[in-house]
Structure to design on (174 residues):
């Protein structure tokens, strides 16, 4: 049984919102 | 004034993201969206916050309901995967490029859960060199690859 990965989850990132700062 | 309120809400949102405080980020995204309805970046932030908070069904509903979020295909697929909704997850991923690593990884995981071992093993195999090149820990990928190979008999 494979390890339940969360590598994909790690790739889920907030957008670059610096333009709003 | 409305402009100041929006600026303040954005500051709160950006600060919360920087601190990985997803509860606060969700609140702040909602505050922005009250002042700037359908603002695309705020919508994206809200969707990502929901995912980090494991509110996968809410995230799917948001992504499906907003044309501005139609590009969040991987995220939608990932939410279905986490809800163990394998067919919708797989269906969503079909629209994405094979060369996208995270999508390949998710596709491999889905195929494994579906018992399609001989299809997922080669995907894991393809992912190993790239992860190695980035000096990432490989244990999980290797474990999954070995399991897929063993199960495909
Ligand atoms: K799995």
């Amino acid at each position: 049984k494979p390890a339940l990965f969360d590598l994909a989850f790690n790739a889920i990132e907030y957008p670059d919102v610096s333009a709003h700062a | 004034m409305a402009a100041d309120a929006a600026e303040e809400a954005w500051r709160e949102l950006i600060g919360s993201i920087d601190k990985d405080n997803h509860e606060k980020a969700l609140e702040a995204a909602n505050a922005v969206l009250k002042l700037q309805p359908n603002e695309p970046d705020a919508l994206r932030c809200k969707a990502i916050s929901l995912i980090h908070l494991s509110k996968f069904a809410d995230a799917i509903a948001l992504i499906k309901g907003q044309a501005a979020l139609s590009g969040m295909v991987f995220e939608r697929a990932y939410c279905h995967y986490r809800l163990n909704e394998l067919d919708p997850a797989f269906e969503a991923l079909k629209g994405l490029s094979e060369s996208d690593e995270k999508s390949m990884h998710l596709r491999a995981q889905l195929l494994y859960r579906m018992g399609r071992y001989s299809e997922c093993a080669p995907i894991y195999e393809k992912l190993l060199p790239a992860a190695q090149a980035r000096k990432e820990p490989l244990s999980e990928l290797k474990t999954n690859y070995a399991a897929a190979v063993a199960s495909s008999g």
Summary: The mean pLDDT of chain B is 91. The two ends of chain B are 67 Å apart (CA to CA). Chain B touches chain A through 29 residues (CB under 8 Å).
